[in-house]
Automatic annotation (TrEMBL), chain B:
Residues 255-379 form the Thiolase C-terminal domain. One of its GO terms (molecular function) is acetyl-CoA C-acyltransferase activity. NCBIfam families: PRK07855.1. This is Lipid-transfer protein. It comes from the Bacteria. It holds the Pfam family Thiolase_N. It comes from Pseudohalioglobus lutimaris.
Length: 136, 390
């Protein structure tokens, strides 16, 4: 019997491309082709210019911790606890929700620089996560 | 000139089932029982109910409830989305239906086996989310599955920005637990909470710990909305709906509005408050007591700022001054709230708002209570309601 795995994201036309980029080891950002604004989380229309044309660009993967929470309870199968969830302000200007790995929960703090790494689950699922930039 | 709902309608009755961790009955049974209790409180025959409003998350169908209580023909039925954000919205739907003649006696209800049945803390899985799946896809894969985890992200940022401490949150939890000591319905009745116990409680989603979380509860709560004129002829003195609004603001997400420039305020709550105040012709200084939505302790402090009871970052100081206590500036959640009475998704906070206006809370402040502010869910599209004494 295989070990339990994380809940896979439900995929649809508005988000599957992001996870496909992740599967290729890339962190994606959606860019409007009408006004060139970056947006995240992805959505089918630009709320500024109402264009439905967009393209995916690859983020540099560097950012800083905007906020965080350390989850200890309840513990769901497929995740390791304590689980550090972070909001990352990317250098490109968008913000995303992700996980901080290779870090003691006592060491996580606001404003710390982080960098994206791709974590591969035992079942081969790729997910973009972050580690402290100094941990390189 | 826009039509105003001010003073046109009132809450004429409130009804509750007992609250427990295992009701032993169906959610439909809880719904029927709390609605009949609300009718009894108002002095209205359940056979007069001709409108129903509930939450999209409620599992009891309107027609099933109608047959169970022997309701009248229904001429208005509607549901409001966004979890606890629906609470005030149900009253708004009912008030508009009554004011426009679509129905005369509208019941707003929420009944749930929230502990013995499907629990909020069980996390999202795709099974309880029938829309917005793609929205939650950004959180599921990372293990951010429960309301506490989403609220914690905002709470942590807010606390860091304004130097809010665990003790500050503890004062909110303890104030409400103190109120619960006078309320035999409350989960926290007979279970006082000290700061030592609060600070020693296990972490769940930092910075939030056990006592910052509300009570998963089995139970139901209903309120009856009818015209203010009719309510005056009924059994209890009416809680007049003076101001009410729903609100969702730019960049809003359900629970995860993490991508706005500023994370340390609640813009949707500010908008709901401004609109409710404007309709009522009142200001924060006119509000005598409150039932601020409190699924988590941190939410109460932030809302003191959203509704203008103090400046940005000053919520913690108001709490420290004892503002939320019975002799304070703004007695809050005098039934114990979602934290210490029961979590009926905010509907029980509306019921307490009605009691405060009537003067029959188990912790009724000594001062005259003319106006009470009640809010719905925090971190979601929400609403604010100002109830007034007739």
């Amino acid at each position: 019997m295989s070990a339990p795995t994380r809940i896979k994201p439900p995929l649809g036309p508005d988000n599957a491309w992001w996870w496909e980029m992740a599967a290729e080891g890339k962190l994606g950002i959606q860019r409007c082709q009408g006004c060139s604004r970056l947006r995240h989380p992805p959505r089918p229309m630009c709320g500024d210019c109402r264009s439905i044309k967009w393209e995916a660009v690859e983020a540099c993967g560097r950012g800083t911790i905007c906020s965080f929470t350390v989850l200890t309870h309840p513990q769901f199968p497929g995740y390791e606890y304590p689980l550090i969830i972070i909001l990352v302000d990317l250098e490109e200007g968008t913000r995303l929700t992700s996980q901080l790995i290779n870090c003691d929960p006592a060491d996580v703090a606001f404003g710390l620089p982080v960098e994206m790494v791709i974590h591969t689950d035992p079942d081969g699922f790729n997910i973009p996560v972050f580690q402290l930039a100094e941990a390189r | 000139m826009a039509y105003s709902l001010k003073d046109k309608t009132a809450i004429a009755g409130i009804g509750l089932t007992p609250f427990s961790k295992k009701s032993g009955v169906s959610e439909l049974s809880l719904a029927a029982q709390c609605i009949v209790a609300a009718c009894e409180d108002a002095g209205i025959d359940p056979g007069a109910v001709d409108g129903m409003v509930t939450y999209t998350l409620d599992n009891s169908e309107e027609v099933d409830v109608a047959r169970a209580i022997g309701a009248n023909d229904l001429t208005y039925f509607s549901r409001v989305h966004y979890g606890g954000g629906a609470a005030v919205g149900t009253v708004l739907q009912a008030a508009m239906a009554v004011a426009t003649g679509q129905a005369e006696t509208v019941v707003c209800y929420r009944a749930m086996n929230g502990r013995s049945g499907k629990r909020m803390g069980q996390g999202i899985s795709g099974q309880i989310i029938n829309s917005g799946l793609i929205h939650y896809s950004w959180y599921m894969a990372y293990g951010m599955l429960i309301p506490g985890s989403w609220i914690a992200m905002i709470a942590n940022k807010y606390m860091q920005e304004y130097g809010v401490t665990r003790e500050d949150l503890g004062r909110v939890a303890i104030s409400q637990r103190n109120y619960a000591q006078a309320n035999p319905r409350a989960y926290g009745y007979g279970k006082p909470l000290s700061m030592e116990e609060y600070l020693a409680s296990p972490p769940i989603a930092s910075p939030l710990c056990l006592y910052d979380f509300c009570q998963e509860t089995d139970g139901g709560c209903a309120v009856i909305v009818t015209s203010a004129e009719r309510a005056r002829d009924l059994r209890k003195s009416p809680a007049v709906i003076r101001g009410i609004s729903q609100a969702s603001t730019r960049g809003q997400e359900e629970m995860t509005s993490f991508y706005r420039e500023e994370l340390t305020s609640l813009p949707e709550m500010e908008l709901a408050g401004q609109r409710a105040y404007a309709m009522a012709g009142l200001e924060a200084k006119d509000i005598d007591a409150a039932c601020l939505y409190d699924a988590f302790s941190s939410e109460v402090i932030m809302q003191l700022e959203s509704f203008g009871f103090c400046g940005q970052g000053e919520g913690k100081d108001m709490v420290l001054d004892g503002a939320l206590d019975i002799d304070g500036r703004l007695p809050n959640n005098t039934h114990g709230g979602l934290l210490s009475e029961a979590y009926i998704h905010g509907m029980n906070n509306i019921a307490e708002g009605v009691r405060l206006v009537r003067g029959d809370s188990t912790s009724q402040p000594a001062k005259a209570v003319e106006h009470v502010l009640v809010s719905s869910g925090v971190g979601v599209p929400t609403g604010a309601l100002i109830l007034g004494r007739d």
